[in-house]
Design a protein that fits this description.
It contains nine helices and 13 strands. With about 270 residues, the protein is α/β, with parallel strands linked by helices. It folds into two domains: about 120 residues, Periplasmic binding protein-like II (D-Maltodextrin-Binding Protein, domain 2, 3-Layer(aba) Sandwich), CATH 3.40.190.10; about 100 residues, Periplasmic binding protein-like II (D-Maltodextrin-Binding Protein, domain 2, 3-Layer(aba) Sandwich). The N terminus is likely disordered.
């Protein structure tokens, strides 16, 4: 009986070890595939282009792990299921660090998805009625970003020192009496039927068939924009040669051409 128990425990330990090794995205082997978490559009599309067309020339193997929301890519990174992710901007990363107590490292910017104000009911921001309902992202970094876009287009005024994570408490003037409806970013395109305006993140706008440069009533400008999406990893992996190769490819001329031809201004290469 004792021998059977010992063998059983050894088997369980071996199985657990295999599972742990299989689920970890980190590796000391420079030739191991680099696991990267992404959102499907445009990040997954861009990374697939790199994987299929450019990576082999750099001796880089890429494994793409796709998530449809903004929370799981960072969870996968901190739990070491992946070695890097590519979906977020610095203000979002900093909010995650603040809430989670985890440290991340923003390695390099790649592209900007302009945040846009969309409507199925209005043709212009001049038509916004009193008491209009505006859907905005419910994560602090992108909610603040939305309020700043509305302020830049004259719909409200924020405190001069309003942070990146500005909230309604930072509004000093709201002449239209706008009512805000925070929603998960992925739900914003579907909110267009129910609200007067919806401030939609670029990736979800593109997935919904909306083009920031054509369909938005207002959109962010690229100049001096702090919201470029880029490659993020754990601090101990920021000098990983595979991560450096990935950044080199994502910032290269081939990716710039691919993005310009595929997205036609809806996604902009970070300058």
């Amino acid at each position: 009986m004792l021998r059977k128990i010992t063998v059983a425990l050894a088997s369980v330990g071996l199985l657990a070890g295999l599972t742990a090794c299989g689920s970890s995205g980190a590796s000391d082997d420079p030739d191991a595939p680099l696991k990267v978490a992404v959102n499907p559009v445009p990040h997954g599309d861009i990374l697939s282009y790199v994987k299929d067309n450019l990576a082999a020339k750099e001796g880089l193997k890429i494994e793409i792990v796709t998530f449809s929301d903004y929370q799981q890519p960072n969870t996968a990174l901190t739990e070491k299921q992946v070695t890097a992710n590519y979906f977020q901007h610095v203000p979002f990363m900093e909010e995650f660090e603040k809430k989670s107590g985890k440290k991340l490292s923003f390695v390099a910017p790649v592209h900007l998805e302009p945040l846009g104000v969309y409507s199925k009911k209005l043709k212009s921001l001049q038509d916004v009625p009193k008491g209009a309902t505006v859907a905005v992202p419910n994560d602090p970094a992108n909610e603040g970003r939305s309020l700043k876009l509305l302020a830049a287009n004259g719909l409200l005024t924020l405190k001069p020192d309003a942070p990146a994570s500005a909230t309604e408490r930072d509004i000093t003037s709201n002449p239209k009496g706008l009512k805000f409806k925070p929603l998960k970013a992925a739900q914003l395109p579907r909110s267009l039927e129910d609200v007067d305006l919806s401030v939609i993140n670029g990736n979800y706008a593109i997935e919904a068939g909306l083009a920031p440069n054509k369909d938005a009533l207002a959109a962010e400008k690229p100049e001096g924009n702090p919201y470029a999406n880029g490659v993020v990893t754990l601090p101990e992996n920021k000098d990983d040669e595979r991560v450096k190769k990935l950044v080199k490819l994502l910032q290269g001329p081939e990716v710039k051409k691919f993005v310009e031809e595929k997205y036609k201004g809806s996604v902009l290469i970070a300058s």
